[in-house]
Predict the structure.
Amino acid sequence: MIFNLKLINTQDSERLLFDIVSRYPRCFGNILAIMDTGSPRTIISAKDVFLLKIPITHLEASSCIKGFGRGSVPCKILKNFKFLIKSNDGKIKYIEMPVSVVDISALQKMSQEMQENAFKIPTVIGLDFLRTQNMKLVVDFKNDSSYFEEV
């Protein structure tokens, strides 16, 4: 199956965006994620944790997210995040995999500036997604095409 990504230009940069749908119990909703080949892990943003009301109090701490401006962002590990993706021919693939989630309760103890910066960081699809789901990433600028393909 092939899963299309959107290649968009924003603020003098290009981004590969991918739609996923959370199927985590009582936390259903759409998430627009950025494919980040520099990220080893998939990270659900503070904004999406907040909007989907993903319960994080019972989760174990994970290493902080670094590389987004100054400082680091606290996070936890959600070992069985359930979501779905749709192929370009309308087929649905259900996925369950561990992801990092921004710890929004820990953010509340940080400065207002740090909180605001953390809420600007998008959800990221990392290399772990490609590995665990046996996907390859194809980006063809010449033909304006980008997608994941099951291998």
